[in-house]
Specification:
The complex is a heterodimer of chains A (354) and B (243). Chain A has 354 residues and is an alpha+beta fold. Chain A folds into 2 domains: 124 residues, no CATH class; 180 residues, 2-Layer Sandwich (Heat Shock Protein 90), CATH 3.30.565. In chain A, strands 1-2-3-5-4 form a 5-stranded mixed β-sheet. In chain A, strand 1, helix 9 and strand 2 form a beta-alpha-beta unit. Chain A is elongated. Chain B has 243 residues and is an alpha/beta fold. Helix content of chain B is 33%, strand content 29%. In chain B, the strands form 4 sheets. In chain B, strands 2-1-3-4-5 form a 5-stranded parallel β-sheet, with helices on both faces. In chain B, helix 2 runs parallel beside helix 3. The longest helix of chain B has 14 residues. The chains are: A alpha+beta (354), B alpha/beta (243). The interface between A and B is medium-sized, with 29 and 27 residues.
């Protein structure tokens, strides 16, 4: 028991996700190797396409490789240097900047190549040749940036999902919740064994969701079920002090909702709200589906002088980040006190899943 | 033997009462679901022992014990807690009887045998010492019994000869605390305006001149206008301007 405070510190240590710039560090050995390899493969495809197999054009392969590797490595080196200034400006501007940079490098390299090795282009005029090179660079870079962006979003989503489960697990093993629940169960075993049995089942299911390692698609109905399990346990402890008013649109139930999106909000409503009020109160949970958008609000009374403000924002922050990572900038979350109530509202379009 | 079980959770009370009934069949159990109710029950029913939960909404268990301390003959206290980061270590250090929930029968038997009063020093440590958690109520013990007033209602604390008077909107209370103690406990919410007076920042509306040329504090909801000493005037004005 005496070691417990230390664990507590370790478990609640801040490990929030700060979204990284979407272009990875191109100076690290692995990306450099992968880029050289990919560039070489592209050159081979090009040479294969322009010369038939028995008479493979080794000359073309040589000059092309030299030129393309030069462009790729120079662009990578410059992007790598510009990464930190780019990460401070907005995403579209940084994307445009990267594209222009690569095109400029291509144009410059093309002119230098023409000076050093004039026979590199044959049929066409010099300007058209340079322009062609720039267009190729634009298309390839465009594809690459899209790939980087998707990769980064995926990584972010995974991290946030993991954090959400970790947060939920922290709440489950929050000593106050755990020991009080066990105490309720110990009390029920004698007086109402069936209720004790159900409480153990509910607690197990809550733990199971928090410990789940693989993600599976979940719906509003799944998340509401999770909230009901949680509220069932809190109801044992709080009795009549806990009243819940549900308002769920019929069409909302089958819509997708990430796991542990709503339940932490309900948990906050109890931990910071109802359980601090001697007379308790009503939590209002509203899940609507309007104009193909899921709109959720959770409202609860709070004590006048809040004793513990900590922890509240951790869960909210994670939920907001996950919403944005999953549903893009159209998703929103707002929270704040209204008189002696606290309300959280969030909305997202389930169809806009990235 | 009369035992008062204080816990905001009905199931927790139920279980403790059942354990007590098993250990001490002749004991009589009464119960309270929050701190204020517990103080009223102590007043009316004079229990010998309190099984007191620490984390409760409104007035917590440690504050209940603090108010009990002003009684002439306070009951013994055994604290119960599911887990409380800051209180647990203090409980161990101060050798105050305590139980961890879910409570074991053997532990309860041992605690019942060894329970005693909780003294001032132990209470100070449980509340986190100087500058620790402030009480939600002030209390005093008079011929009318143990009276409490929410700190949120107090307009001013004025030191008179032997007591400090806490003035609320409708009534006042004579407190055993010194003004200095009150200032260190409630310093965040109260402002010193005179050697003998603290006023609630939230009820301080403004200043007004009296006939003698001195300044007085205007407080919301009460007619009383406590005097501001020249020494504190500048600070009071600054506070008013800041808000």
């Amino acid at each position: 028991m005496q070691d417990a405070p230390k664990q507590q510190v370790a478990l609640t240590g801040g490990d929030r996700v700060a979204p990284e710039f979407f272009i990875p560090d191109l100076c690290a050995p692995r990306p450099v190797f992968v880029m050289i390899l990919l560039a070489q493969l592209m050159v081979i495809v090009y040479v294969l396409a322009s010369s038939a197999l028995p008479r493979f054009n080794w000359d073309l392969l040589g000059t092309c490789s030299l030129f393309v590797q030069w462009v790729v490595l120079l662009s990578a080196a410059l992007l790598c240097q510009l990464r930190s200034p780019f990460s401070r400006i907005s995403l579209p501007v940084a994307t445009l900047g990267s594209l222009l940079l690569v095109m400029a490098v291509t144009a410059l390299s093309s002119y230098v190549a023409l000076q050093l090795y004039p026979q590199i282009h044959r049929a066409t005029e010099e300007t058209w040749w340079v322009l062609r090179n720039m267009l190729v660079a634009l298309v390839v870079m465009g594809i690459l940036l899209r790939y980087f962006y998707l990769q980064q979003q995926l990584r972010l989503q995974e991290q946030l999902e993991l954090l959400a489960r970790l947060d939920s697990l922290r709440s489950r093993i929050r000593p106050h919740f755990l020991f009080n629940t066990l105490n309720s169960i110990a009390s029920l075993i004698m007086s109402r064994p069936e209720a004790a049995e159900r409480a153990v089942e509910d607690l197990s299911e809550l733990f199971r969701v928090s410990l789940q390692e693989t993600q599976r698609p979940t719906t509003v109905a799944d998340e509401l079920h999770l909230c009901e399990l949680y509220l069932g346990i809190e109801q044992l402890r709080l009795g009549e002090r806990l009243q819940v008013r549900w308002q769920v649109d019929a069409g909302a139930r089958e819509q997708s909702m990430p796991s542990l999106l709503l339940q932490p909000l309900v948990e906050n409503a109890i931990y910071h709200g109802l359980s601090q009020l001697p007379q308790g109160g009503v939590i209002t949970i509203d899940v609507g589906f309007r104009q193909s958008e899921i709109q959720v609000s959770v409202d609860n009374p709070v004590p006048q002088q809040a004793r513990s403000k900590q922890g509240h924002h951790m869960a909210l922050e994670n939920i907001e980040q996950r919403l944005h990572a999953l549903y893009g900038p159209g998703a929103s979350l707002e929270a704040g006190p209204r008189g002696d109530h606290f309300t959280v509202r969030l909305s997202y379009a389930p169809g806009a899943l990235l | 033997m009369k035992i008062l079980v204080v816990d905001d959770e009905a199931l927790a009370r139920e279980r403790l009462e059942r354990l007590v009934a098993r250990l001490l069949p002749e004991a009589q159990c009464i119960e309270a679901s929050d701190g204020l109710q517990a103080l009223r029950m102590v007043e009316r029913q004079a229990p010998d022992l309190l099984l007191l939960d620490i984390r409760m909404p409104g007035m917590d268990g440690i504050e209940v014990a603090t108010h009990l301390d002003s009684l002439e003959n306070p009951p013994a206290v055994i604290f119960c807690t599911a887990y409380d980061e800051y209180a647990l270590q203090a409980l161990q250090h101060q050798a105050v009887a305590y139980l961890l929930k879910p409570v074991r029968e053997a532990e309860l038997a041992r605690a019942l045998a060894g329970a005693g009063r909780v003294n001032r020093l132990q209470l100070a440590s449980l509340r986190g010492g100087e500058g620790g958690v402030a009480r939600s109520h002030v209390s005093s013990h008079s011929h009318r019994g143990l009276e409490t007033m929410p700190v949120a209602e107090v307009r001013s604390f004025i030191a008179e000869q032997k007591y400090v008077v806490a003035r609320g909107q409708e009534r006042e209370l004579l407190l055993p605390d010194t003004l200095k103690e009150l200032e260190s406990e409630f310093g965040d919410d109260f402002l010193r305006i005179h050697r003998n007076a603290l006023v609630a920042r939230r009820y301080l509306l403004g200043l007004e001149r009296d006939d003698a040329g001195g300044w007085r504090a205007v407080l919301e909801g009460v007619d009383e206008r406590p005097a501001i000493s020249r020494r504190h005037l500048a600070e009071v004005k600054q506070r008013l301007l800041a808000s």
